[in-house]
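Form P-L/3: holo structure prediction, ligand PXL.
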Amino acid sequence: MSEQKRVAAIHDLSGVGRCSLSVILPTMSVMGIQVCPVPTALLSTHTNGYGDVVLKDMTDYIPDALKHYISAEISFDCVYSGFLASKAQVSHCLEFMDSFSGALRVVDPVMGDAGKRYRTYDDELCARMGELVAAADIITPNLTEASILLGQAYPVSPLTVGEVKQMLVKLAAKGPKTVVITSVILADGEICNVGYDSEHNAFWRVPYEMIPKSYPGTGDIFAGILTGGILLGDSLPIAMTRATAFCEYAIKTTFGYGAAPREGVMLEKCLPMLVEQRTFTEYRQL
Ligand code: PXL
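OUTPUT (holo model):
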Protein backbone atom coordinates (compact mmCIF):
# COMPACT_ATOMS: atom_id res chain seq x y z
CA MET A 1 0.00 0.00 0.00
CA SER A 2 1.30 3.43 -0.92
CA GLU A 3 1.67 5.88 1.94
CA GLN A 4 1.79 8.80 -0.48
CA LYS A 5 -0.41 11.72 0.47
CA ARG A 6 -2.89 12.96 -2.13
CA VAL A 7 -3.98 16.60 -2.32
CA ALA A 8 -6.78 18.18 -4.36
CA ALA A 9 -5.42 21.62 -5.27
CA ILE A 10 -8.26 23.94 -6.28
CA HIS A 11 -6.34 26.83 -7.84
CA ASP A 12 -5.83 28.48 -11.22
CA LEU A 13 -3.48 27.39 -13.99
CA SER A 14 -1.59 30.37 -15.40
CA GLY A 15 0.50 29.61 -18.47
CA VAL A 16 3.22 32.20 -17.92
CA GLY A 17 4.52 33.87 -14.77
CA ARG A 18 5.19 30.91 -12.46
CA CYS A 19 2.31 31.04 -9.98
CA SER A 20 -0.55 28.91 -8.64
CA LEU A 21 -0.76 25.34 -10.04
CA SER A 22 2.36 25.90 -12.17
CA VAL A 23 4.44 26.17 -8.99
CA ILE A 24 2.37 24.08 -6.57
CA LEU A 25 2.56 20.96 -8.76
CA PRO A 26 6.37 20.81 -9.01
CA THR A 27 7.14 21.88 -5.43
CA MET A 28 4.76 19.47 -3.70
CA SER A 29 5.64 16.68 -6.15
CA VAL A 30 9.34 17.01 -5.31
CA MET A 31 8.35 16.70 -1.64
CA GLY A 32 6.77 13.33 -2.46
CA ILE A 33 3.14 14.42 -2.45
CA GLN A 34 0.63 13.64 -5.20
CA VAL A 35 -1.04 16.88 -6.30
CA CYS A 36 -4.32 16.52 -8.21
CA PRO A 37 -5.06 19.83 -9.92
CA VAL A 38 -8.62 21.16 -9.95
CA PRO A 39 -8.28 24.31 -12.09
CA THR A 40 -10.53 27.23 -11.16
CA ALA A 41 -9.51 29.12 -14.30
CA LEU A 42 -7.07 28.87 -17.17
CA LEU A 43 -5.12 32.06 -17.76
CA SER A 44 -2.59 33.00 -20.42
CA THR A 45 -0.49 34.69 -17.69
CA HIS A 46 -1.09 35.77 -14.11
CA THR A 47 -2.90 39.08 -13.69
CA ASN A 48 0.06 41.15 -12.55
CA GLY A 49 2.25 42.68 -15.26
CA TYR A 50 1.37 41.24 -18.67
CA GLY A 51 -1.53 43.47 -19.71
CA ASP A 52 -4.80 41.98 -20.98
CA VAL A 53 -5.03 38.39 -19.82
CA VAL A 54 -7.01 35.61 -21.53
CA LEU A 55 -9.08 33.94 -18.79
CA LYS A 56 -11.29 30.85 -19.16
CA ASP A 57 -13.47 30.43 -16.08
CA MET A 58 -13.72 26.75 -15.01
CA THR A 59 -16.60 27.21 -12.54
CA ASP A 60 -18.84 24.59 -14.21
CA TYR A 61 -16.06 22.04 -14.32
CA ILE A 62 -15.41 21.82 -10.57
CA PRO A 63 -18.71 20.22 -9.34
CA ASP A 64 -18.62 17.74 -12.24
CA ALA A 65 -15.05 16.73 -11.42
CA LEU A 66 -16.05 16.33 -7.76
CA LYS A 67 -18.97 14.05 -8.74
CA HIS A 68 -16.60 11.93 -10.79
CA TYR A 69 -14.09 11.62 -7.92
CA ILE A 70 -16.86 10.55 -5.54
CA SER A 71 -18.27 7.96 -7.97
CA ALA A 72 -14.77 6.63 -8.71
CA GLU A 73 -14.17 6.36 -4.92
CA ILE A 74 -11.11 8.59 -5.07
CA SER A 75 -10.22 10.13 -1.73
CA PHE A 76 -7.92 12.97 -0.73
CA ASP A 77 -5.80 13.54 2.37
CA CYS A 78 -6.08 17.28 1.90
CA VAL A 79 -8.25 19.79 0.05
CA TYR A 80 -6.31 22.98 -0.60
CA SER A 81 -7.91 26.03 -2.20
CA GLY A 82 -6.27 29.14 -3.66
CA PHE A 83 -7.13 31.59 -6.46
CA LEU A 84 -10.87 31.53 -7.24
CA ALA A 85 -12.50 32.90 -10.39
CA SER A 86 -16.11 33.29 -9.20
CA LYS A 87 -18.30 33.45 -6.10
CA ALA A 88 -19.88 30.09 -6.97
CA GLN A 89 -16.44 28.50 -6.61
CA VAL A 90 -16.56 29.25 -2.87
CA SER A 91 -19.56 26.89 -2.60
CA HIS A 92 -17.77 24.34 -4.79
CA CYS A 93 -14.71 24.41 -2.53
CA LEU A 94 -16.95 23.90 0.53
CA GLU A 95 -18.63 20.93 -1.20
CA PHE A 96 -15.20 19.49 -2.00
CA MET A 97 -14.11 19.82 1.64
CA ASP A 98 -17.35 18.34 2.96
CA SER A 99 -17.05 15.35 0.61
CA PHE A 100 -13.79 14.04 2.08
CA SER A 101 -14.21 13.80 5.82
CA GLY A 102 -10.89 13.69 7.59
CA ALA A 103 -9.12 15.57 4.79
CA LEU A 104 -7.00 18.49 6.01
CA ARG A 105 -8.62 21.74 4.85
CA VAL A 106 -6.12 24.37 3.78
CA VAL A 107 -7.35 27.72 2.48
CA ASP A 108 -4.93 30.18 0.94
CA PRO A 109 -7.31 33.15 0.62
CA VAL A 110 -5.63 34.56 -2.49
CA MET A 111 -7.05 38.07 -2.98
CA GLY A 112 -4.21 40.56 -3.27
CA ASP A 113 -0.71 41.65 -2.29
CA ALA A 114 1.24 44.73 -1.18
CA GLY A 115 -1.93 46.46 0.03
CA LYS A 116 -3.81 46.00 -3.27
CA ARG A 117 -6.49 43.56 -4.44
CA TYR A 118 -5.87 41.49 -7.58
CA ARG A 119 -7.92 42.93 -10.41
CA THR A 120 -10.28 39.93 -10.75
CA TYR A 121 -11.40 40.15 -7.08
CA ASP A 122 -14.39 42.35 -6.16
CA ASP A 123 -15.97 43.11 -2.75
CA GLU A 124 -18.41 40.20 -2.97
CA LEU A 125 -15.80 37.58 -3.84
CA CYS A 126 -13.59 38.87 -1.00
CA ALA A 127 -16.55 38.68 1.40
CA ARG A 128 -17.31 35.10 0.37
CA MET A 129 -13.67 34.16 0.91
CA GLY A 130 -14.49 34.61 4.61
CA GLU A 131 -16.86 31.60 4.37
CA LEU A 132 -14.02 29.40 3.17
CA VAL A 133 -11.72 30.69 5.90
CA ALA A 134 -14.35 29.76 8.50
CA ALA A 135 -14.37 26.15 7.22
CA ALA A 136 -10.58 25.75 7.11
CA ASP A 137 -8.14 24.00 9.44
CA ILE A 138 -5.21 26.12 8.23
CA ILE A 139 -5.19 29.49 6.47
CA THR A 140 -2.22 31.27 4.89
CA PRO A 141 -3.11 34.89 4.04
CA ASN A 142 -0.44 37.48 3.35
CA LEU A 143 -0.74 40.73 5.30
CA THR A 144 -2.95 42.29 2.60
CA GLU A 145 -5.36 39.33 2.65
CA ALA A 146 -5.37 39.17 6.46
CA SER A 147 -6.36 42.86 6.52
CA ILE A 148 -9.17 42.28 3.99
CA LEU A 149 -10.49 39.30 5.99
CA LEU A 150 -10.51 41.36 9.19
CA GLY A 151 -12.04 44.44 7.53
CA GLN A 152 -9.02 46.48 8.57
CA ALA A 153 -6.95 48.95 6.56
CA TYR A 154 -3.65 47.57 5.25
CA PRO A 155 -1.04 48.68 7.81
CA VAL A 156 1.29 51.23 6.27
CA SER A 157 3.75 51.15 9.15
CA PRO A 158 5.43 48.23 10.96
CA LEU A 159 3.31 46.28 13.45
CA THR A 160 4.07 45.60 17.09
CA VAL A 161 4.12 41.99 18.26
CA GLY A 162 0.91 42.72 20.19
CA GLU A 163 -0.86 43.96 17.03
CA VAL A 164 0.23 40.91 15.03
CA LYS A 165 -0.88 38.51 17.78
CA GLN A 166 -4.25 40.26 17.80
CA MET A 167 -4.64 39.73 14.05
CA LEU A 168 -3.70 36.04 14.36
CA VAL A 169 -6.12 35.47 17.24
CA LYS A 170 -8.98 37.32 15.48
CA LEU A 171 -8.49 35.24 12.34
CA ALA A 172 -8.43 32.00 14.36
CA ALA A 173 -11.69 33.10 16.02
CA LYS A 174 -13.30 32.89 12.57
CA GLY A 175 -12.71 29.11 12.55
CA PRO A 176 -9.26 27.91 11.50
CA LYS A 177 -7.17 26.29 14.23
CA THR A 178 -3.95 27.38 12.56
CA VAL A 179 -3.28 30.81 11.07
CA VAL A 180 -0.13 31.82 9.22
CA ILE A 181 0.34 35.39 7.95
CA THR A 182 3.13 36.04 5.46
CA SER A 183 5.15 39.18 4.69
CA VAL A 184 4.76 40.94 8.04
CA ILE A 185 7.04 43.89 8.87
CA LEU A 186 7.52 44.07 12.63
CA ALA A 187 8.28 47.19 14.63
CA ASP A 188 11.42 45.47 15.98
CA GLY A 189 12.82 45.63 12.43
CA GLU A 190 12.32 42.01 11.38
CA ILE A 191 10.44 40.87 8.26
CA CYS A 192 8.70 37.63 9.15
CA ASN A 193 6.17 34.99 8.41
CA VAL A 194 4.16 34.54 11.61
CA GLY A 195 2.00 31.68 12.81
CA TYR A 196 -0.50 30.82 15.52
CA ASP A 197 -1.45 27.36 16.71
CA SER A 198 -4.64 28.10 18.64
CA GLU A 199 -4.92 24.58 20.10
CA HIS A 200 -1.61 25.03 21.93
CA ASN A 201 -1.79 28.85 22.20
CA ALA A 202 1.64 28.99 20.53
CA PHE A 203 2.86 31.92 18.43
CA TRP A 204 5.81 31.62 16.01
CA ARG A 205 7.87 33.85 13.79
CA VAL A 206 10.27 32.96 10.99
CA PRO A 207 12.38 35.96 9.95
CA TYR A 208 13.79 36.29 6.43
CA GLU A 209 15.93 38.71 4.48
CA MET A 210 13.98 41.39 2.61
CA ILE A 211 14.82 41.70 -1.11
CA PRO A 212 13.74 44.94 -2.83
CA LYS A 213 11.72 43.17 -5.53
CA SER A 214 8.37 41.36 -5.47
CA TYR A 215 7.85 38.10 -7.39
CA PRO A 216 4.33 36.73 -8.07
CA GLY A 217 3.70 33.17 -6.99
CA THR A 218 5.84 33.15 -3.86
CA GLY A 219 2.73 33.08 -1.63
CA ASP A 220 1.50 30.04 -3.58
CA ILE A 221 4.86 28.31 -3.19
CA PHE A 222 4.86 29.11 0.53
CA ALA A 223 1.36 27.71 1.07
CA GLY A 224 2.11 24.56 -0.97
CA ILE A 225 5.32 23.75 0.90
CA LEU A 226 3.75 24.53 4.28
CA THR A 227 0.87 22.18 3.43
CA GLY A 228 3.28 19.52 2.18
CA GLY A 229 5.36 19.78 5.35
CA ILE A 230 2.34 19.42 7.62
CA LEU A 231 1.10 16.40 5.61
CA LEU A 232 4.53 14.78 5.97
CA GLY A 233 4.55 15.27 9.75
CA ASP A 234 6.22 18.65 10.27
CA SER A 235 5.10 20.70 13.27
CA LEU A 236 3.82 24.20 12.48
CA PRO A 237 7.13 26.03 13.18
CA ILE A 238 9.16 23.45 11.25
CA ALA A 239 6.79 23.60 8.24
CA MET A 240 6.79 27.43 8.35
CA THR A 241 10.59 27.42 8.40
CA ARG A 242 10.83 24.90 5.53
CA ALA A 243 8.49 27.04 3.39
CA THR A 244 10.19 30.33 4.33
CA ALA A 245 13.68 28.95 3.69
CA PHE A 246 12.70 27.75 0.22
CA CYS A 247 11.00 31.02 -0.74
CA GLU A 248 13.98 33.05 0.49
CA TYR A 249 16.38 30.82 -1.48
CA ALA A 250 14.27 31.02 -4.66
CA ILE A 251 13.86 34.81 -4.35
CA LYS A 252 17.58 35.40 -3.75
CA THR A 253 18.46 33.12 -6.68
CA THR A 254 16.12 35.03 -8.98
CA PHE A 255 17.25 38.44 -7.71
CA GLY A 256 20.88 37.38 -8.13
CA TYR A 257 20.31 36.54 -11.80
CA GLY A 258 18.45 39.83 -12.34
CA ALA A 259 15.46 38.05 -13.91
CA ALA A 260 12.27 40.02 -14.67
CA PRO A 261 10.05 39.97 -11.52
CA ARG A 262 6.84 39.40 -13.49
CA GLU A 263 8.17 35.96 -14.53
CA GLY A 264 8.11 34.78 -10.92
CA VAL A 265 10.98 32.96 -9.23
CA MET A 266 13.45 30.71 -11.05
CA LEU A 267 11.90 27.61 -9.58
CA GLU A 268 13.57 25.12 -11.93
CA LYS A 269 17.01 25.96 -10.51
CA CYS A 270 15.83 25.66 -6.92
CA LEU A 271 13.67 22.53 -6.74
CA PRO A 272 16.50 20.17 -5.66
CA MET A 273 16.50 21.87 -2.23
CA LEU A 274 13.07 20.39 -1.55
CA VAL A 275 14.34 16.83 -1.89
CA GLU A 276 16.26 17.35 1.35
CA GLN A 277 14.47 15.68 4.22
CA ARG A 278 16.25 17.66 6.94
CA THR A 279 14.24 19.78 9.34
CA PHE A 280 14.54 23.55 9.25
CA THR A 281 14.83 25.22 12.63
CA GLU A 282 15.36 28.96 12.18
CA TYR A 283 11.97 29.76 13.79
CA ARG A 284 11.52 31.64 17.06
CA GLN A 285 8.61 32.33 19.39
CA LEU A 286 6.75 35.49 18.36
O1 PXL B 1 0.20 34.28 -6.95
C1 PXL B 1 -1.08 34.67 -6.78
C2 PXL B 1 -1.85 34.64 -8.08
C3 PXL B 1 -2.51 33.49 -8.43
N1 PXL B 1 -3.23 33.41 -9.57
C4 PXL B 1 -3.30 34.46 -10.42
C5 PXL B 1 -2.64 35.65 -10.12
C6 PXL B 1 -1.90 35.75 -8.92
C7 PXL B 1 -1.17 36.97 -8.60
O2 PXL B 1 -1.01 37.88 -9.37
O3 PXL B 1 -2.74 36.68 -10.97
C8 PXL B 1 -4.06 34.33 -11.67
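COMMENT: The pocket of PXL is lined by residues 12, 14, 19-20, 43, 46-48, 83, 110, 118, 216-217, 219-220 (CB under 6 Å).
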